[in-house]
Amino acid sequence: MPQRILLGDEAVALGAVHAGITAAYGYPGTPSTEILEYLQSYRESHNGPIASWCANEKTAYEAALGTCFAGRRALVTMKHVGLNVAADAFINSALVHTHGGLVLAVADDPGMHSSQNEQDSRWYADLARVPCLEPATQQEAYDMTREAFELSERFGVPVVLRLVTRLCHSRTAITVGPAREPNPIRRASNRNSWILLPANARRQWRELLARQPDIARWSDASPWNTLHRNEHRTDLGVITTGIARNYLRENLDGLGWLPSHLHVGAYPAPPHLLRELCAHVQRVLVLEDGQPFIERQLRGLFPPSVQVMGRMSGEVPETGELTPDIVRMALKLELRPAMKLDGLVLPNRPPQLCQGCPHTHAYHALQAALVGYDEPMVTADIGCYTLGALAPLQTIESCVCMGASIGMARGAAEAGVHPVVAVIGDSTFVHSGITALADAAAANADMTLLILDNATVGMTGAQDTVLPQSRLTDVIRALGVSEAQCVVVDAHPRKVHENATVLRRAIEHHGLSVVIARRECKVAAKRRQRAAASEAAASAPATNAAQEVAS
Amino acid sequence: MKYDILFAGVGGQGVLSMAAIIGRAAIAHGLQAKQSEVHGMAQRGGAVQAHLRLSDRTIASDLIGHGMAELILSLEPLEGLRYLEYLSPRGALVTAAEAFANIPDYPELGTLHARVRALPRGVLVEAERLASEAGDAQMVNTVMVGAASAFLPMDAVHLEAAVRENFARKGEGVVGLNLAAFRAGRAAASGLEPAAPSRP
To answer: ipTM value of the model?
Structure first.
């Protein structure tokens, strides 16, 4: 069997290709982005399945659902908070009978390395009553992705593949299998199962619930859920989920014995295996890289029959990602001896905008435009420009969720604050800002919207945006913003003063105004130039290429 | 056999490409490897680390634990010291001597250098100077891979082959420059163990 060295994200992507998907859709978000990036380069080199960035996670999910409605297999990718955006589509899609496999690969970020919360997507799978697979290794990421499509078609529901940062962004050798042929187009045999009118929805919901015992039996029998019983010792049992198993194994040498151990990689959590473990031991330690999902089920409302230890009782910290050392301490082992930095306190080095980033120039203009106001308010959004919250810029005051800057600015303006400026990037604007701007335009809210248009999705590594730069003003005008109040400026460092004047005029306008500060992201520009150069090199005489191969 | 390496630096310096070269060489050497990387927000000029775990057996954790690293390889002295608690008492810290000072409260460089020299196996490499002398100041990370080669449990020929492969698509000229940078780094770190700085 061939071996490949792949990131966890890339293993998911290749697993989906080999499972016979015809399409993948997603919205960039760390740590999920590399799944679709891999599929896009695979498409270029292998004429592979469609791999497309979408306006947001909900539209991506719906496109994947449509593929599946046509009987073919589709993958949809996003980060954990993206599933909040796609939740309407996701939870309702569990009620329709999906006959083409549909897999949602959702990457959680315990520890919030690049996120505003650490919500655990296993709750969502539970809410929708669909199976969920959680790989512990990059090999499992590949194998589980393939199996997830089989399960989706077997149970007629979307299947969740729950990933975490450390699995997504770690690279190792994996063994891959033969590719399966894609499904032919096949329409749903019972169309009423896709029309969720209340009468149909009630039937579909009952049918989904009726499938739950089968799904639970599958989970108890799944090879991803394994129980090892230590017949000699009953003082401790350990439950691990996903990558927590790796950290347990890393510390078994120190422990010197192998406690009874239930590993869970397939959900719903296997009821019989959980009961069997808990009947066998007096205490059970629950190790999950994420929220206490299984731990909370074990505790319930009434005193459990075993002592449960984990995040809720303090053996594992209540927040943050797991590490080998946190698991070591939960097992009551001493940390290994290490070097120390006695007495020297090192300063942090937070991320910052790139040298010469156009956002910096736009922020300087905004700062100048706000001079003289006592209490200006600047709401902002999610992207590289969120770093405008940190020194030395310290210009923005909020970052909550995609698109919130605009809705919050409208609310604050109507509460009586003046001036209020909302700052949002072009991709975030298309993701979730357009609808909020429609509201603000309808109400003619007394606020200013500053769109930082760098023509890319910057923070996640410069992916293409859905809306070309040239059409942005058309969209804004169509929402009801007048021509006079929709101004485009160049976010050039030498135009800070000029742009401040434009912004000041917009702020002084009584009602809604929009300023677009336009200049290409430096990372994206560099990438574009590099791609152009390598294209030029590729079209050079063939003898050069031959020489390079020979050398 | 087990050998854990922690790579450190600032986003944009080339931490991941150092890890990629050494990982490639380790696999050619017949070792198993797991390489954990930082993507996303931290890559924008912030502190960046990568973990590379090598073994002749199955590797469980993607992350290195406290006191497990045999080597910290850093592109910058502050970042190398930041992860000292990951270093085994018998491990080596090999770091570029030059500061990347993009923060206002960057410590006094002499203090950082003294801390590195005080370690049982601390090595400072004037990587920027060596890279410039080898032909391109951008090759600091290749110099540091060369410096690390004096410590790594694999033959320098595997590492040179990995450098070659890593830069092959940029043409033979770039490959040659990087091999020179690699050798300069290797020469600077060889014979310096323990605890002799490359600066007099």
So the answer is: 0.93
